[in-house]
Amino acid sequence: MDVQIELERLRTELHEHNHRYYTLDTPVISDYDFDQLLKKLEQLEAAYPEFFDPNSPTVRVGGSVTKNFETVNHRFPMLSLGNTYSLEELQEWIIRVQKLAPEATFVCELKYDGVAIGIQYVNGALTRAVTRGDGTQGDDITTNVRTIKSIPLLLNPPFPEDFEIRGEIVLPHARFEDLNKQRQNQGLPLFANPRNCASGTLKLQDSGEVAKRGLDAYLYYVLPEGILASNHSESIALAGNLGFKIPKTEDRFIANCDGIESIMSFVEYWDIARKNLPFDIDGVVIKVNSYKAQEDLGFTAKSPRWATAFKFKAERMPTILESVTYQVGRTGAITPVANLKPVWLGGTTVKRASLHNEDQIAALDLHIWDEVYVEKGGEIIPKVVGVNVDQREESSQRVVFISNCPECHSPLSRHEGEVQHYCLNEDGCEPQISGRIDHFISRKAMDIMGMGSETVALLVNKGLVKRPADLYELTFDDLIQLDGFKEKSVLNILDGIEASKQQPFERVLFAIGIRHVGATVAKKLVRHFRSMDAIMAADKEELLAAEEIGEVIADQLLTTFQKPERHSEIQRMQYYGLQFEAEIQEQATDSAITGKKIVVSGVFNSISRNELKTLIETLGGVNVSSISSKTDCVFAGEGMGPAKLKKATHLNVPILNENEVRTLLNL
Ligand code: IVH
Fold first, then answer.
1. Which pLDDT tens digit goes with each residue over 522-545?
2. Using a 6 Å CB cutoff, which residues line ligand 1?
3. How far is 219 from 245, CA to CA, in rounded Å?
4. Which of 345, 346, 470, 520 yields a CA-CA distance of 20 to 30 A from 192?
5. Domain that holds residue 328
């Protein structure tokens, strides 16, 4: 047997079955037979690794691990679309287009609510898949995209030599619900919605895990250079011949429309029918069909003039408010939660919704057993947005905000000018104690390996830990007596705690959990003050002098450091060897950009935007995001937007091109 020929044969056969199953929906062999073939291929590939093929059907099951996703430039920027929620504005757009391009006809499509992706094929083989990122640069997530079965790894001939197609990766509702059920059973945090889950999944390091999640993809845009036809709808049809799963006319996923009437009918149809789709859409997209007309209409700085999106208002459903409960966060913040009669909304079952705070409850004049309207916007948690007062029983009881903590019963406090209630019993309120420690050990904070929130709950429950500093006093004997703990896991935890002593000061400052001091604020404070002693010694004026520190944060810092418990906790941590000073860094006082406010725009060939921004900071410059009269200079790579260019020129801000930047920074 010629191994190479056999490998080729198996791969071709499996590619074909995959295509039939996942794209055409017309399988010709059983799942069992398919698995047998795949196993055979896997065995052969394992025995002959020299014939490795990155696009072999075996990559569908994943297995490779990507440590860091490389940031790469898009060959053509990935633009967004103009959008509107108003039918009137949509009609105005159509009329405008018809005036500018009288011959134009339109194609209507679904606006898939997922993660945008650009996929490149060279000589018919998938070579690269990149996320949208900031539009000019995205993450190379090829390994993970290769596991999505509806995306062909090899194109059916004849194919363009170099071809890029763009689309959206979505997670079907059924897979989303299954996954969240599993996570709930395992005590893991739930995903908020299918889009977040799809996006998180694509960034997983283990492609094997990605393969299991069941992502799907819909393609909607062929790039100009790989053009297959003279208009969009034909290009999409031809992409189908190449092996892509494309929207079908008979499902009404795509329609050719000649004007307002047919476009409106598409929009109205999907405003209702979207509720029965197995995945999320957030609107419809209307595109001018002919490429010639598209070219005539052109682009604005951000989006094409030949396409727009009509977005559906967030879906809203009536249901019954059964009760209101209150959650206590790690900072003592109290959040009221509406417990609802379960209702199917936007592809998931909603049982709870946030009520935010007392004012919100009062504004809704909420009563128990009210019929309430629940909406799922872009936010994570559904909201109660209204009440049907006509349905209210006279005897029903108004919701009165609690005055004592639901956990420790101490009186709640609400500061003047603030909307949130707080429980101030920091040291005696269980969710605050565990919450603070959970936060302290979390990945973005001290990243203590070997420990999770279940261990924290156990430790708090046994009275072994009450404050984060107590973690550093834990002994082997303390931990080995806990239920289910073996020597190995105890040693892992102790190692993790020990290793955390090396975490840099900015992480420690974030980890100790001061209200309003998130990771970014912590970074700014560290950069400005460089040591905990300096931060604690600063008065209000000195605190306000640091970048991004306003009244609220300054007041909070002062209040926090006035508390003797906080003082002693920080002292204990210093004693255990945690980092409370910024690492000694060469202060780049003599750099050409020290203290200069710099805007980075466009793409640079010799350095990625992120690297350039880090370099600017290292050299003592300050990255700012938008151009103002205070900007000292713009570093302009390729494709700097015309609006930025105009503004910089108008304000006389110097603009340096890539070569000039390299000279200035000695690159
Ligand atoms: S066309 C140059 N078509 O919506 C125009 N985009 O809000 C390329 N999207 O960035 C985009 N469904 O991620 C197009 N049928 C569709 C779409 C679609 C979803 C996304 C896409 C885009 C975003 C704009």
1. 999 998 999 999 999 999 999 998
2. 79-81, 109-112, 116, 168, 220-221, 285, 304, 307, 309
3. 7
4. 520
5. 316-414
